[in-house]
Amino acid sequence: MFYVNVEAAVFKDDKWLLIRRSMKEEHAGGELSLVGGTVDNEGNSNDILERTLRRELLEEVGVEVKDLIQYVRNTSFVLASGKEVVDIVFLCEFDKGEPYAKSPDEIESIQWMTTDEIVNHEEVQFYLSDNILAAEAMRKKRVW
C-alpha cells in the first residue's frame, strides 16, 4: 500500500516558495523542499488531492493559492522505514498570506527562490530541481 503525498510548486512573480524542513522531520530533515503533505483517508471524496494541498499550505506556511491548481508530475520513492510513497506535484499561483513557519517541528525556514537559484543550489536534491524545472516549463506554456 502506498502513502500518497502532494506538493505545491507555488510561484509568485518569478520565484518559488520553498521551505527548509526541520531537522526533527524523519524524512528529508534539514533539506529544502516544496510545501506538501500526506493525503488523509476520507472514504468517498472529491478533489481530495487539491483540498489536501490547500490544507497543507495553510497549516504549514499560512498561505493560499489561486483557484487553478494544475498537475505537474508524479514520482515514487521508498522511505527509510520501507514504506512506499507516491508523490504528486501541482503548479499553483500564490494568492494571499505572508508565508511563515507555523510549526517549528516541521519547518525551519521559508524562502522564495528563482528557478536558477534552485537548480544551481548545492543543497538542493535532484528531485526538487526536477520538480521545479517541470513546473517552470508548464508555467511558461500557460497564461496565468
Describe the SSE topology.
Elements: E1 2-12, E2 15-21, E3 32-33, E4 35-38, H1 48-61, E5 64-78, E6 84-96, E7 107-113, H2 115-119, H3 126-141
Parallel strand pairs: 1-6
Antiparallel strand pairs: 1-2, 1-4, 2-3, 2-7, 5-6
**CATH third-level topology:** Nucleoside Triphosphate Pyrophosphohydrolase
Tell me the distance between the termini.
37 Å
Q: Would you identify the CATH architecture?
A: Alpha-Beta Complex
DSSP E strands, number: 7
Gyration radius from CA atoms, angstroms? 14 Å
Largest sheet: 7 strands, mixed
Described by its quaternary structure, the protein is single chain
What's the structural domain tally?
1
How much of the polypeptide forms β-strand, as a percent range? 35-45%
- SS content category: alpha+beta
How would you explain this protein's 3D organization?
The protein is an alpha+beta fold and 144 residues long. It has a single domain (2-141), classed as Nucleoside Triphosphate Pyrophosphohydrolase (Alpha-Beta Complex). Helix content is 24%, strand content 41%. The protein is built from 3 helices and 7 strands; from the N terminus they run ββββαβββαα. It has helices at residues 48-61, 115-119, 126-141, and strands spanning 2-12, 15-21, 32-33, 35-38, 64-78, 84-96, 107-113. Strands 1, 2, 3, 4, 5, 6 and 7 form a 7-stranded mixed beta sheet that branches. β5 (64-78) and β6 (84-96) form a beta hairpin. The radius of gyration is 14 Å and the shape is globular. It starts with a strand and ends with a helix. The mean pLDDT is 92.
